[in-house]
Amino acid sequence: MNSDTIVGIIGSGAMGAGIAQVAAVAGHKVVVYDANAAALDKAKAGLGATLAKLREKGKLANAEEVMQRFTFAESVSAFAACGLIIEAIVERLEIKKSVFAEVEKIVGEECVLASNTSSLSITSIAAACNSASRVMGLHFFNPAPLMALVEIIPAVQTDEALIPATKALMESWGKVPVIAKDTPGFIVNRVARPFYSEAIRIYEEGIADMATIDWAMTELGGFRMGPFTLMDYIGHDVNYVVTETVFQSFFYDPRYKPSFSQKRLLEAGWLGRKSGRGFYNYSEGAAQPGPTKDEKPGHEIKERILAMLINEAAEALHLNVASARDLDLAMTKGVNYPKGLLQWCDEWGADKCLAKLDALYNDYHEDRYRASIWLRRKASK
Ligand code: NAI
After folding, report:
1. Separation of CA 360 and ligand 1 centre (Å)
2. Cis before 143? omega within 30
């Protein structure tokens, strides 16, 4: 793969269109295909408008040239000359498998096939192909043109030689690639779970209200958005479903247990900002609850959530999901954490983090609060 590689994008929704933009701006010819003609038209118009806006702002002088690099295709046969295909269609395993099998028949032997799936097993997608060794995960973050992180996920079957080549290609696109094992949630969607779930737990127990928890995590923790504001922003149709999928995929490990508070919001159709109501009410004139800015309990909330996050990163490191460097890069570049969690562990002190978790474990007697052996060993050093 190099700058002459023609890139094919399957699915021209939010992610497909964003990834197509990144590849075209990086100099590639890009073939965009969608099964839905209206979605394809929308992507074409959207990309044209975005590129024009970038030119107006002086950020993309050759916007017209970039637009010429796109082909919008209504049939997969247009992928014949592609050297890399990135799939970003609906998150359903059986559909992805059949699309991969279909596309494999059209492209050449050297063509790399990648999925942007957030939660499905890359290995099971690869198994749908005759040449499974060319299949991998290439997980971008939303919005793809703005978020630097890309998780590269080799399947069990993936040819290892493809990994450095893909890494180099992503760097040439201006991205920050990290390598993650094919395990549920890869890095970000796994390690970030406690940011949401522990915040909800604190709220459900009545320890603090949502506004206070959000305040503690932003003002005292340095996060850009508090957990409730962020969940409302992501949408509960996405955030809750990721939590539930990760929980099921980890064979119901209680560490990832979803919450009823969030499930009920989804059932009510209170999806967050986009539907006008989620944890908070966004309708015009609705009163916004204010936080109780009491620093001592605020720090306790922050430390409880942080300890759970660090524990998750520690366990991922312990199980070789990714390197320490990649784990920290993923959280800072994929979800804008103020610091990598392993770096945070060093600065805070593994012993303090462990003491926090052990205190929770002793209080609750729940497996959810078990500390990673990695953290325990580090604390004892
Ligand atoms: P979307 O719903 O915006 O777009 C999906 C597009 O795929 C639609 O235009 C649809 O017409 C098309 N499509 C569906 N089935 C198809 C098929 N069989 N053949 C061709 N086109 C088909 O979805 P979005 O949000 O762009 O997500 C796409 C993928 O990216 C999913 O796997 C999702 O898990 C993943 N992802 C999503 C992120 C997000 O924040 N939205 C972040 C990272 C990954």
Report:
1. 39
2. yes
Q: What is the pTM of this model?
A: 0.95
Closest CA to 371 of 292, 290, 315: 315
**All domains in the chain, ordered by first residue:** 7-179 (3.40.50.720), 189-380 (1.10.1040.50)
Residue 98's φ and ψ, nearest 5 degrees, are -70, -35
The response to whether residue 73 sits with its C-beta less than 6 Å from ligand 1 reads no
| Apex 376 CA angle, 218 and 321, nearest 5 | 70
Is there an atom of ligand 1 within 6 Å of 16 CB?
yes
Give me the tens of pLDDT residue by residue for the chain, a chain 381 residues long: 898 999 999 999 999 999 999 999 999 999 999 999 999 999 999 999 999 999 999 999 999 999 999 999 999 999 999 999 999 999 999 999 999 999 999 999 999 999 999 989 999 999 999 999 999 999 999 999 999 999 999 999 999 999 999 999 999 999 999 999 999 999 999 999 999 999 999 999 999 999 999 999 999 999 999 999 999 999 999 899 999 999 999 999 999 999 999 999 999 999 999 999 999 999 999 999 999 999 999 999 999 999 999 999 999 999 999 999 999 999 999 999 999 999 999 999 999 999 999 999 999 999 999 999 999 999 998
Catalytic residue, candidates 139, 197, 311, 312: 139
Q: What is the CA(91)–ligand 1 centre distance, in A?
A: 7
